[in-house]
Design goal:
The protein has one domain: Aldolase class I (TIM Barrel, Alpha-Beta Barrel). About 35% of the residues lie in helices and about 15% in strands. It has helices spanning about 15-25, 65-80, 100-110, 130-145, 155-160, 170-180, 200-210, 230-235, 245-255, 285-300, and strands at about 25-30, 85-90, 115-125, 145-155, 185-190, 215-220, 225, 265, 275-280. The model has no long low-confidence stretch (mean pLDDT about 95). Bound molecules: iron/sulfur cluster (SF4).
Length: about 300
């Protein structure tokens, strides 16, 4: 069986396949911390943030540098032997539309001052976009490839309350569907392994996300990292974690409920290994990726199979 959106053994629509089709080459990401906060941290909606939050996981060059300096450092870090690459400017830390239009415009202008930036991705919440900001993003989308990433994590309100998300699924859905009318590319994040969620609950989350029809989907494994509220909850009262094989089976099956056109931008987490408390298996990303490919092949699964 050959999956239509793949030119290798993958049975799901990878980001590298999408980028190769669209840009004719591999496209890298420059992760940026624009120094913004989040309404779930500063008291507008909540205090302290989501229990697993570190302000947006991933690699940040140095948040004290300007946006341009961060992008330069990111390009330099990922460019070897004089090669040139295309990059997406990825405003990743915290909530990247939780600011005024002037700042948003400056963030975009700084990113677009680099010739090899071919797109801008804003990681944000659905409740941090008003009409003025959406109009600005539409205007920006005429100049570059804009993508807006929304954290959902789970469709189960009990879980959203436990993780202090300060948002219900119904609120997310309404705002998300409204944003979708803008025509701007969207990506939704979900997390597998959140405390007290069953396998079936996580499958339901994937099914519902499939119905929301995003352009992209990121599936993360829950990471318990040092210094987070989640770490102290886990240390005081450990909850069940997904084991590696269950995670692999879960993701493989979740993908069968997602339309083949949806770009699967991630199927596991990629956090700072030195800060990871659990689950230990998630440190070996290659093995998880290989396990998903193997499981899908052995069970004749592919993205969208169960639609
Ligand atoms: S919404 Fe995002 S940035 Fe804000 S607290 Fe939650 S995970 Fe952190």
């Amino acid at each position: 069986m050959k999956f239509i959106y793949s030119n290798d053994n993958k049975r799901y629509h990878t980001l590298s396949f999408y980028n190769n089709q669209k840009y004719g080459e591999k496209v890298l990401k420059a992760s940026i911390n624009a120094g913004l906060t989040c309404p779930n941290i500063d008291g507008k909606l909540g205090v302290g943030g989501c229990i697993y939050c570190e302000g947006g996981s991933g690699y940040f060059t140095n948040k004290n540098l300007s946006i341009k300096e961060q992008i330069s450092a990111e390009i330099k870090r990922q460019t070897k032997n004089g090669e040139t690459h295309k990059f997406i400017a990825y405003f990743q830390a915290n909530t990247n539309t939780y600011t005024d239009i002037k700042t948003l415009r400056k963030m975009a202008d700084d990113a677009l001052s680099f010739e090899n930036i071919v797109g801008i991705t804003f990681s944000t919440r659905t409740d941090c976009l008003d009409d003025e900001k959406v109009a600005f993003l539409q205007e920006l989308n005429q100049k570059t490839d804009v993508c807006v990433e929304f954290g959902l994590q789970s469709i189960h309100n009990k879980t959203l309350e436990f993780i202090n998300r300060c948002q219900t699924f119904e609120g997310f859905e309404k705002e998300y569907l409204n944003f979708k009318k803008s025509g701007i590319r969207t990506c939704i994040h979900i997390i597998n392994g959140l405390p007290y969620e069953s396998y079936d609950m996580m499958i339901k989350t994937a099914k519902k996300v499939g119905e929301l029809n995003p352009d992209g989907l990121k599936i993360h494994s829950l990471h318990i990292t040092k210094g987070t509220k989640l770490a102290s909850i886990y240390e005081n009262k450990p909850f069940d974690l997904l084991d590696k094989q269950t995670y692999i089976k879960l993701v493989a099956n979740q993908l069968t409920f997602i339309a083949p056109e949806v770009v699967i931008e991630r199927v596991t987490g990629d956090g700072d290994k030195s800060k990871l408390i659990a689950p230990n298996w998630s440190k070996d990303k290659i093995s998880v990726l290989g396990g998903i490919d193997k499981f899908m092949k052995e069970n004749d699964l592919f993205q969208g199979k169960n639609l």
